[in-house]
Specification:
78 residues; alpha+beta; 6 strands; 17% helix; globular
Amino acid sequence: MSHVGDMEVGERARIIGIGKGERAYRQRLLAMGLTPGTEFTLTRLAPLGDPVEISVRGYAMSLRKGEAEMLTIERVVS
């Protein structure tokens, strides 16, 4: 298991879980389509690592580093 912060730009991953955090924010991530089993690609990473941009379900989404770290992922080998 790893986290978005461990990824390189262009890598693909699959969400396997959402860590503990504020319930309202967890629900917001789920509502935006970040559900277990969903694949995404890391498309941009700011110079200091915050924010990160991912491509998921056909659209680009920017997440703050702390928010992205809530996602537990597994890398997808293409």
